[in-house]
């Protein structure tokens, strides 16, 4: 089983022709409401990839949880342990997406910052899992306790360094796979003033890998993915699609990648499948609502093979 411990939010996304300037109001946006949160998105992606997955997180006992609940129960293959905290608000994200599909996100974490540690540890003890997938949208204490537990069990640890937190350097040496985007890679990199092109990202991946010894995976949107590990040093180009909303693409990649590594353990194939899944995700609105199923990913790959 792939265990995902992390955040769950209600996402309020407004689609606008362009981002407002500071102090400016842009009107005529379309509102789309759907569940999100990096943890939940990644768990859904792992489950839709066809791997047994469990999500553990926390919400408030409020109207936002009422909305999310329906989506959670529709996700039939995904096991969940969601702690409902009466005193807290469910996490929420406010997302603006422009006509190119680029997003800007602000989050109110609410209950995600209050995951009850004792209940969480009990859940871990009672769950059989062979790997975990974590992000940084919950507290350091949660991440470090889960990592300690997973290490004692001999589980593989996938750490997505999003959103960047300074404490990530206190835990990343325990992970086996570090997955990050260009912004996080630059923040983690110790070399001087890197720019954001693929060549620079290859150097950054090598620097972080050399320092940590881990598999380092940098997702770069339309510029593809860079991977550096003890036995791999590659750049994978992205699959071409017309973007509608890039929200959740990184999460889709992480969920699919960890699922594929659990199912088959072939890193090159895992990157290929996850890149397709992330590409398909950006063609639809929302986070959870845009994560493709494995069948959709396979159909896309089949259509590519027919057009070769
Ligand atoms: O990565 C996308 C996610 O970030 C959104 O679903 C939002 O909830 C924020 O957590």
Summarize the structure in words:
- It is a single chain.
- This protein is α/β, with parallel strands linked by helices.
- It has one domain: Ribokinase (UDP-N-acetylmuramoyl-L-alanine:D-glutamate ligase, 3-Layer(aba) Sandwich), CATH 3.40.1190.
- The protein has helices spanning 38-48, 63-74, 117-126, 140-152, 168-171, 182-188, 198-212, 249-263, 267-281, 294-307, and strands at 2-5, 9-15, 30-36, 53-60, 78-85, 91-97, 103-108, 131-134, 156-160, 177-181, 215-219, 225-229, 232-236.
- Strands 5-4-1-8-9-10-11-12-13 form a nine-stranded mixed beta sheet, sandwiched between helices. Strands 3-2-6-7 form a four-stranded mixed beta sheet.
- The longest helix is centred in the middle third of the chain and has 15 residues, at 198-212.
- 44% of the residues are buried.
- The structure holds alpha-D-ribofuranose.
- Alpha-D-ribofuranose binds at residues 7, 9, 11, 36-38, 41, 93, 105, 107, 137, 247-248, 250-251, 287.
Describe the structure concisely.
By secondary structure, this protein is of the alpha/beta class. It has 10 helices and 13 strands. It has one domain: Ribokinase (UDP-N-acetylmuramoyl-L-alanine:D-glutamate ligase).
Mind telling me the CATH class?
A: Alpha Beta
Q: How many structural domains can be distinguished in the coordinates?
A: 1
Architecture, CATH level 2? 3-Layer(aba) Sandwich
CATH fold annotation: UDP-N-acetylmuramoyl-L-alanine:D-glutamate ligase
Arithmetic mean pLDDT:
95
Portion in strands: 15-25%
The largest sheet has its strands arranged as 5-4-1-8-9-10-11-12-13
How do the helices and strands follow one another from N- to C-terminus? EEEHEHEEEHEHEHEHHEEEHHH
Describe the global form. Answer: globular
Number of alpha- plus pi-helical segments: 10
CATH superfamily: Ribokinase
Largest sheet: 9 strands, mixed
Regions with little confidence, pLDDT below 50 for 5+ residues: none
Helix content: 25-40%
What is the CA–CA distance across the termini?
A: 36 Å
**Roughly how many Å is the radius of gyration?**
18 Å
Quaternary structure annotation? single chain
Beta strand count: 13
| Small molecules bound | alpha-D-ribofuranose
- The helix-and-strand class reads alpha/beta
């Amino acid at each position: 089983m792939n265990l995902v411990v992390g955040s769950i939010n209600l996402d309020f996304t407004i689609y606008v022709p362009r981002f407002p300037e500071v102090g400016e109001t842009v009107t005529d946006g379309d509102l789309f409401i759907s569940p999100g949160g990096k943890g939940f998105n990644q768990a859904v992606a792992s489950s839709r990839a066809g791997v047994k997955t469990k999500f553990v997180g926390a919400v408030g006992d409020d109207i936002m949880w009422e909305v999310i609940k329906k989506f959670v129960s529709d996700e039939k293959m995904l096991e969940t342990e969601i702690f409902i905290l009466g005193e807290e608000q469910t996490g929420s994200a406010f997302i603006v997406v422009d006509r190119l599909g680029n997003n800007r996100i602000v989050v109110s974490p609410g209950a995600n910052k209050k995951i009850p540690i004792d209940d969480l540890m009990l859940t871990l003890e009672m769950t059989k899992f062979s790997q975990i997938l974590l992000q940084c949208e919950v507290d350091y204490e949660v991440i470090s306790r889960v990592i300690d537990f997973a290490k004692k069990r001999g589980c593989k640890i996938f750490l997505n360094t999003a959103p960047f937190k300074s404490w990530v350097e206190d835990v990343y040496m325990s992970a086996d796979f570090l997955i990050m985007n260009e912004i996080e890679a630059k923040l983690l990199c110790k070399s001087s003033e890197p720019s954001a092109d693929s060549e620079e990202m290859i150097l950054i991946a090598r620097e972080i890998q050399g320092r940590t010894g881990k598999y380092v995976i940098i997702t770069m949107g339309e510029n593809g993915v860079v991977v550096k590990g003890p036995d791999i040093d590659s750049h994978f180009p992205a699959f071409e699609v017309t973007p509608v909303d890039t929200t959740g693409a990184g999460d889709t990649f992480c969920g699919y990648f960890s699922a594929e590594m659990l199912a088959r353990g072939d890193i090159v194939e895992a990157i290929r499948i996850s890149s397709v899944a992330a590409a398909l995700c950006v063609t639809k609105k929302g986070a959870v609502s845009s994560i493709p199923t494995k069948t959709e990913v396979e159909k896309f790959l089949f259509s590519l093979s027919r057009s070769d």
